[in-house]
Amino acid sequence: MQHTLLIVPGLGDSTAGHWQDNWLQHFPNATKVVQDNWNQPQLQNWLKNLDTTIKSIETPIVIVAHSLAVSLIAHWSQQNDTEKIIGALLVAPADVESAEHTPEETWNFAPIPLSKLNYPSIVITSSNDPYISVERAEFLAQKWGSQFYNVGPKGHLNLASQLGLWEEGQEILQTLLQLITKNKK
Questions:
Q1: Closest CA to 69 of 55, 85, 49
Q2: Residue-wise over 27-41: b if at least 16 C-beta within 10 A, else e?
Q3: Residue 135 has what pLDDT?
Q4: Half-sphere exposure of 93 (CA within 13 A, CB side)
Q5: CATH number of the domain within which 113 lies
Q6: Domain count, the chain
Q7: Which of 43, 72, 141, 181 has the fewest C-beta atoms under 10 angstroms from its C-beta?
Q8: C-alpha angle 122-7-34 in degrees, rounded to nearest 5
Q9: Which residues sit opposite 62 in a β-bridge?
Q10: pLDDT band at 1; cut points 50, 70, 90
């Protein structure tokens, strides 16, 4: 099945060396949502840019969101027709409702919508992610109807985690693609 891998970075963008940027170069069917201001995110602006990008894509979409973008996807999915979205890999969600875990510039993405997603999804967290507790990530996965993976102590699964092409993430992406195929039958 032809699909587009939509890379949706979080706060600060996923720049050179980040696994999301590596996937963008690695997968010929990958494209990326570009935001106007990566460092002072405003939910309504980010939603508009996400929606514009989704509407411009002709093929079914598999979302690959990281950090703050996971909340963005939850908000977008609650407010829009999700027919084009066939699945989502929701990596290292940031707990924007927790002042202890996230910086103030992300708080306008709270509260995190808890509605079940209308497409297969997988939430991936790390056991020592400074931006969310494992319990909170698992709670979000349950609310969204997502499968849940804890990949062990790997930080925020970002540039500092030095994941390269993040083969483990690619394997989990394959699991998602299998879920999508089962869902279509």
A1: 49
A2: beebebbebeebeeb
A3: 98
A4: 35
A5: 3.40.50.1820
A6: 1
A7: 181
A8: 140
A9: 5, 87
A10: low
With tokens 């514009």, the residue in question is 52
- Provide the domain limits for residue 72: 4-184
pLDDT at 102: 95
- What pLDDT does 50 receive? 98
- Three-class SS of the chain: CCCEEEEECCCCCCCCCCHHHHHHHHCCCEEECCCCCCCCCCHHHHHHHHHHHHHHCCCCEEEEEECHHHHHHHHHHHHCCCCCEEEEEEECCCCCCCCCCCCHHHHHHCCCCCCCCCCCEEEEECCCCCCCCHHHHHHHHHHHCCEEEECCCCCCCCHHHCCCCCHHHHHHHHHHHHHHHHHHC
Single-letter amino acid code for the residue at 135 = E
> What pLDDT score does 184 carry?
76
